[in-house]
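INTERNAL AUDIT FORM
Audit reference: QA-55
Scope: verify that the stored structure record matches its stored sequence.
Auditor: D.O.
Record contents follow.
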Amino acid sequence: MTTATTSRPTTQAATANRLDLYVGIHKALRHFMTDTLHSVGRMDTRDSADLARTLGQFEDLMTLCEQHIHHENDFVHAAIEARQPRGAARTAGDHVEHFAHIEALRAEARGVAQADDATRPGLALRLYRHLALFVADNFQHMNVEETQNNAALWAHYSDEELLALHHRILASLPPSETMEVMRWMIPASSPAERAQILGGMQAAAPAPAFQAVLDLVRPHLDDGAWDKLARALGVPQQPGLVNVR
């Protein structure tokens, strides 16, 4: 498990202006994790619709976390290990614990869903606290990846090779996972990052697929953020936000 004391970034990881495979997906995960944690904490355990909606989002988060671990194991860790044996050992060990943590949290969520009105509030509070620990551990884990693992990648791979790896990861994603990531990544990204991510999609993806992503993220950007993105992409303005989260 990642300890409470985080490692100091290496000089290379802190200063190199290199392609970063982690930045976008980790912003998405941090956004998704914190929003879900807040939702579980404020959940009305006597409101069946709120309960179903919140536990549904919780399960979506667990599913994306599992998928993300698999992608890192299969692509990123494999790339590191290919050129620096045991270079990803620390975060690979964390991943084993994360799988177990996810299953334990899922069991607690099922207990909340199946409980009676008298016992559900206490079980929901336990789920909230344990989810908070999972989020905290993941935040520290992601920092190790963004410093130590990135340093290993940058030491052994060119940006052209890293971009090819990034494209292989994207090609492996089913459409449903891509949409889930976009929903959380785009609102969590800076204006320049949004324009870069969606500009690349605009150039490469079919127009209906690109429009579906814009429609998905629009409710989660305020008018100022949307105006900047629309100008960068050359798409029509759509005033009036719906749900900024």
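Auditor finding: record pair retrieved intact. DSSP finds ten helices and no strands in the chain.
Action required: none
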